[in-house]
Structure to design on (354 residues):
């Protein structure tokens, strides 16, 4: 069973969105992907604001398994402001009630393609977006936020420190492994094309990498794996050479950015969402080891094990966004440091940080 988010995090989100969230007063919001990492943060912060601000708003949450969600997150599912709609994002039955806002956050993350046919993944993402857009038109929604990915710029980017929205790179359509990236890219276009034919105002969040409660610690997320190793008191294990450059935004800040974009982003605009604080995977592992010292370890630090060795002359790949557009146009910024984010995540998992 998932634990509720801390009051500290929920109050942080509310502090930076309380002038925006009253737009939901008396309204309904429809959320796909509500049972995932992003969804938990959006729904819990929605419920917190609903109670604190007396919004009398409601959320319809699409889920493939309503029973499993109730068992996992009863603090969300049992709230009277939440209605669970069981169905597949590609073919869910449209609820009759009017929904003014739509957040389309459903899809597997790009690292979960192993063992799944690329065409199946791409079709699921594209048809899910089409069906959600059909619903937005049917329900006469005013605004829709689509959560895309920084992978629309391509993979293995080098020679640049921070990737702007104007970066001309793109996934290689001839590579089966690009199915997730290409489908997200095309879904962005579907949102914009659809909005041009309807009154719907669409905006796109190109999301990079994040950390926080509800992030799986046993999946393909490096920072989640590092926190898992630290909690277990085992060496932090890097299977590569530790040189790729990444950045991580804490999920409470992520929720602020997504709520702000849903309510205020100009239509047909895409914004990078993430942190500009750049770390190599190796330095990230050492930061995690330093932040999460073993309990009762006398101040000793965890060991970092690196399997690979850098190859001389090999370009270092970068997956770090430029967020200057979000800062200048929407007034967004990172509030919580990565060190604090690691600490808060570990504490949510029951680890007493020393």
């Amino acid at each position: 069973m998932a634990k509720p988010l801390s009051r500290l995090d929920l109050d942080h989100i509310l502090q930076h969105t309380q002038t925006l969230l009253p737009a939901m007063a008396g309204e309904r919001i429809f959320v796909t992907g509500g049972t995932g990492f992003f969804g938990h943060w959006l729904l819990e912060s929605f419920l917190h604001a609903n109670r604190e601000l007396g919004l009398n708003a409601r959320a319809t949450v699409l889920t493939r398994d309503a029973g499993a969600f109730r068992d996992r997150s009863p603090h969300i599912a049992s709230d009277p402001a939440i209605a669970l709609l069981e169905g597949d994002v590609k073919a869910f039955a449209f609820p009759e009630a009017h929904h003014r806002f739509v957040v389309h956050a459903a899809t597997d993350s790009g690292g979960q393609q192993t063992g799944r046919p690329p065409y199946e993944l791409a079709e699921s993402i594209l048809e899910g977006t089409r069906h959600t857009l059909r619903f937005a038109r049917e329900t006469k929604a005013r605004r829709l936020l689509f959560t895309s990915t920084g992978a629309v710029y391509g993979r293995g980017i080098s020679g640049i420190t921070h990737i702007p929205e104007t970066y001309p790179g793109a996934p290689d359509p001839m590579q089966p492994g690009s199915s997730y990236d290409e489908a997200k890219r095309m879904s962005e276009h579907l949102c914009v094309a659809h909005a041009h034919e309807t009154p719907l105002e669409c905006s796109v969040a190109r999301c990079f990498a994040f950390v926080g409660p509800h992030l799986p610690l046993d999946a393909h997320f490096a920072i989640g794996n590092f926190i898992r190793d630290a909690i277990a008191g085992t060496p932090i294990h890097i299977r590569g050479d530790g040189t790729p450059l990444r950045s991580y935004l804490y999920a409470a800040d992520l929720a602020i950015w997504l709520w702000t974009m849903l309510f205020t982003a100009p239509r047909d605009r895409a914004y990078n969402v993430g942190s500009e604080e750049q770390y190599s995977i190796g330095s990230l592992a050492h930061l995690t080891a330093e932040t999460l010292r073993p309990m009762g370890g006398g101040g000793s630090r965890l060991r970092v094990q690196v399997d690979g060795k850098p190859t001389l002359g090999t370009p270092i790949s970068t997956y770090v966004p430029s967020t200057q557009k979000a800062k200048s146009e929407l007034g967004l910024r990172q509030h919580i440091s990565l060190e604090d984010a690691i600490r808060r995540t570990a504490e949510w998992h029951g680890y007493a940080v020393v």
Notes: The longest strand covers residues 143-149. The chain has one domain: 7-213+249-275+321-335. Residues 142 and 200 are 5 Å apart (CA to CA). DSSP finds eleven helices and 14 strands in the chain.
